[in-house]
Diacetyl reductase [(S)-acetoin forming] (Nitrococcus mobilis Nb-231), 261 residues
Amino acid sequence: MAYTQNGKVALITGGGQGIGQSIVERLHSDGFKVAIADLNLGTATAVAEKLGGQDGGAIAIQVDVADRDSVFAAVERAVSDLGGFDVIVNNAGIAPTSPIEDITRESIEKLFSINFNGVVWGIQAAVKAFKKLGHGGKIISAASQAGHIGNPGIGLYSATKFAVRGFTQTAARDLAQYGITVNTFAPGIVRTPLMEELAKKAAKDAGKPEEWGWRQFTGGITLGRISEPAEVAGVVSFLASSDSDYITGQSILVDGGMVFN
């Protein structure tokens, strides 16, 4: 099927690999022009070129989500280069292990600066763009199954994702008057390089084999398997579409049945 643009523009942070790349590819297939924003410009560029580059409705932008100015500049470039702005997906994040006794001021500041502050900057930058363009829009951020229930060994990561959910609920109330919806998607265990690194680290810290590390995160999945990035991207596609226009302030779990609300 030939690629047909829908006249809308989306920016995805952390779009150069893993879940972010799958979101980029899905939204592009849905007809969005996509700005692939990533700290690693090389991976972002490779994804953009795969989708046909600017002529094909895809550009790569280097961004450090912990830096407010960098996030604002990325959104401004998406507007100027792609001719509009309708959706931001605040997907970038890191997930290191954080044994309780080993948490430091520096580790707190680093994780929150990326996982939480990056979402705040993304929301602010999107709101500025939406208002300037004179229309509403959709803000979609990455929460996590670990932002619905605390997971062992990743206390700081869980804390950042609980914070993202809380901020999203307030933003949804504050921004509804401007026609802006604000939601999160909450993946469980997804087959990504980040998850593989986390499982290996958990096993190494415990002096166990790698398979033990995976079991710490995959036990209790009702559907009996970890998810693929494309399955998470499908939910983001829904949140970016008009089908979700009456949904705001929500966190949609995509975890195969790990947490039930």
